[in-house]
Amino acid sequence: MAIAFGCSRAGTALNEKFGPYLAKNGNEVDDFGPFDDTPVLSADTAHALSKPIAAGRNEASRI
């Protein structure tokens, strides 16, 4: 399954574990970050995630 995900900076530590876990279990993963403690709006993450979903690239997503 192709999965896209992203988070707020509060979820960065969990996000770092989530992607590798999904990939290890046979999923194609698109991680939209953030990749550090830089503040990010949830709306920006949602917008980034919406593009591959709308294009049919990813079957599932999670913010």
Automatic annotation (TrEMBL):
InterPro entries: RpiB_LacA_LacB (IPR003500), RpiB_LacA_LacB_sf (IPR036569). Pfam families: LacAB_rpiB (PF02502). Keywords: Isomerase. One of its GO terms (molecular function) is isomerase activity. Belongs to the LacAB/RpiB family. This is Ribose 5-phosphate isomerase RpiB. It comes from Rhodobium gokarnense.
